[in-house]
TrEMBL record:
Name under which the protein is recorded: Threonylcarbamoyladenosine tRNA methylthiotransferase
CDD domains: Radical_SAM (cd01335)
UniProt xrefs under SMART domains: Elp3 (SM00729)
Source organism (scientific name): Ailuropoda melanoleuca (Giant panda)
One GO cellular component term noted in the UniProt record for this chain: rough endoplasmic reticulum
Disordered: region residues: 63-98
Annotated Polar residues bias: 83-98
Keyword Transmembrane helix recorded: yes
Length: 617
């Protein structure tokens, strides 16, 4: 049988011509090589070459000599770092660590805005399978959510970091302290998540558990415009299932010389009205009966997006069920003064607490100018007087800083007179602390002893009057939402957001009831429920259980897998056993890993088959 070229056996396609050309060149090279070898003279050897193993010199040691020589060899023991070996044995490499099965302990300091951020972070971590624990010692990772307003809050934060390091805990830092000053020495080498990056907390925690240090401190922007922060429809775990905290904006328009929060939260950035209304509606569908609106300055809401606080509030009251209530957060005098008429109407609405927090900080115009507060005492009094007239019985809370740099005894006495005149039922007295990086920290400081004494003197004035004595004997409607610190009473609030303690009857929780006031204290009243009075149930649905994840969107359901498909609506909470809720994401990740490996294997098989076809063709 004669040899035939591949072109004679298989039809030659245009794609194979290059391969056939290379084949012809290869066979021609083989033929020429064979011809040259026939013409070359053969090599001859005079002696036969011994096997390589037999070529041994006379002076070389024989095998038996080598064996006897071993007796004189002393083996040298290799020192082993026992401590390092045990450490490596107990701590597997980061690649072998499976995220999503660890326990996480959270601690939050500071304002309602910070608490809302903490609830969102807890919800996302729980949705991905992590267990949120209240036992710090059992936790694998500590998530510390900080406040930068005053030195004591940062001191507690720093001490918690030190304690976590001593207990060999993984650490993730959040809140205003690391956002404002991420390069502080005690933060080096630790993972940080910024105040506008809380929607990525799962990524930061996973990398931290693997032994990496991650820092996400960027700002949320859309077409170059700064946003209010992370989305409002993220999963969350409410500290109190009956109360929803909604941040309506972040940052502010002021530049107060003592404020460190501005360094962390930045300039004003507001959420759109429709997103805030949707968040409120979702909350009521999950059994919430009270909503708190919070931000660094609620009065400035909307000025960056062409709207206003009254416009938002009128939309919100439309979706508040009967018996549920809305509470406004802190607002500075300059911006609320532009909407006083509308604000008075809203605060008279039956489903809005007649309550407003307006910080004055000082009753001295000289001090206010040094603080760059952008108003004078007369402006503050005008706002207070107008609201007290138009909203009878309104509760007005305020803040005062004692011992600001340059404050004289006369300045302080003006502040004392203001408190004596208005007898604020809620007064937050703060000793001044110079915060690093603020203009006030560089000013001439008031002696520490003077600051302490002024704080004590003002506290004495505040405790000299009882704001609720005249209300004994009144019949009030109150909304019950929480338990007292001593666990002896339930805590309710009346129309003016005044605290009323009622008996611990489980049927009262989350309900609006009628009580007769029979006792009062400095910060509370006590009420006896009226037996034949109507009880309002404001919740549309049954409230979630404590620690239950709420607000899982379709996006999160897709990530978690089909085990959530039984939940009827995107805004409904995940009602399932905690163990199964943690196991489902882990099984989902295992399924995804298996699918990935199968896909890679099939791709490699396809490439191998294509290679073999090309070779044989």
């Amino acid at each position: 049988m004669s040899w035939r070229a591949p072109s004679e056996v298989f039809p030659v396609s245009a794609e194979r011509r290059v391969v056939l050309s290379l084949w012809a060149d290869f066979t021609e090279d083989l033929r020429l090589t064979a011809d040259n070898q026939e013409k070359m003279p053969s090599a001859s050897c005079d002696t036969l070459l011994d096997d390589i193993e037999d070529i041994v010199l006379q002076g070389d040691l024989k095998p038996q000599d080598r064996h006897s020589a071993r007796k004189h060899v002393v083996p040298k023991a290799r020192k082993r770092n026992t401590q390092k070996y045990l450490q490596e044995e107990n701590s597997p490499p980061s690649d072998s660590t499976i995220p999503g099965i660890q326990k996480i302990w959270m601690r939050t300091w500071g304002c309602s805005h910070n608490n809302s951020d903490g609830e969102y972070m807890a919800g996302q971590l729980a949705a991905y399978g992590y267990e949120i624990t209240e036992n710090a010692s059992d936790a694998d990772l500590w998530l510390l959510n900080s406040c930068t307003v005053k030195n004591p809050a940062e001191d507690h934060f720093r001490n918690s970091i030190k304690k976590a390091q001593e207990e060999n805990k993984k650490i993730v830092l959040a809140g205003c302290v690391p956002q404002a000053q991420p390069r502080q020495d005690y933060l080096k080498g630790l993972s940080i998540i910024g105040v506008q990056q809380i929607d990525r907390v799962v990524e930061v925690v996973e990398e931290t558990i693997k032994g990496h240090s991650v820092r996400l401190l960027g700002q949320k922007k859309n077409n170059g415009k700064r946003l209010g922060g992370a989305r409002l429809d993220l999963p969350k775990i409410r500290k109190n299932p009956l109360i929803e905290i909604i941040s309506i904006n972040t940052g502010c328009l002021n530049a107060c010389t003592y404020c460190k929060t501005k360094h962390a939260r930045g300039n004003l950035a507001s959420y759109p009205i429709d997103e805030l209304v949707e968040r409120a509606k979702q909350s009521f569908q999950e059994g919430v009966c009270e909503i708190w609106l919070t931000s660094e300055d609620t009065g400035a809401y909307g000025r960056d997006i062409g709207t206003s606080l009254p416009a938002l509030l009128w939309k919100l009251v439309e979706v508040i069920p009967e018996g549920a209530m809305l509470r406004l957060g802190m607002t500075n005098p300059p911006y609320i003064s532009e909407h006083l008429e509308e604000m008075a109407k809203i605060l008279n609405h039956p489903r809005v607490y007649a309550f407003l927090h307006i910080p004055v900080q000082s009753a001295s115009d000289t001090v206010l100018m040094e603080m760059k507060r952008e108003y004078c005492v007369a402006d503050f009094k005008r706002v207070v007087d107008f609201l007290k007239e138009k909203v009878p019985g309104i509760t007005l809370a305020t803040d005062i800083i004692c011992g600001f740099p340059g404050e004289t005894d006369q300045d302080f006495q003006e502040t004392v007179k203001l408190v004596e005149e208005y007898k604020f039922p809620s007064l937050f007295i703060n000793q001044f602390y110079p915060r690093p990086g603020t203009p006030a920290a560089k000013m001439a400081q008031v002696p520490a002893q003077v600051k302490k004494q002024r704080t004590k003197d003002l506290s004495r004035v505040f405790h000299s009057y009882n704001p609720y004595d005249h209300k004994i004997g009144e019949r009030q409607q109150v909304l019950v939402t929480e338990e007292s610190f001593d666990s002896k009473f339930y805590v309710a609030h009346n129309r003016f957001y005044e605290q009323v303690l009622v008996p611990k009857n489980p049927t009262f929780m989350g309900k609006m009831i009628e009580v007769d006031i029979y006792e009062s204290g400095k910060h509370f009243m006590k009420g006896q429920p009226v037996s034949d009075a109507k009880v309002y149930t404001p919740s549309i649905n049954k409230p979630l259980a404590k620690g239950e994840v709420s607000g899982l969107t379709e996006e999160f359901r897709n990530r978690l897998g089909n085990h959530l498909s039984s939940v009827p609506h995107a805004s409904a909470a995940v009602r399932q056993d905690p163990a199964s809720s943690r196991m489902a994401p882990r099984l989902q990740r295992l399924h995804q890993d298996c699918a990935l490996r199968v896909s890679v294997g099939l791709a490699l098989c396809a490439l191998l088959l294509a290679f073999l076809v090309k070779v044989y063709n």
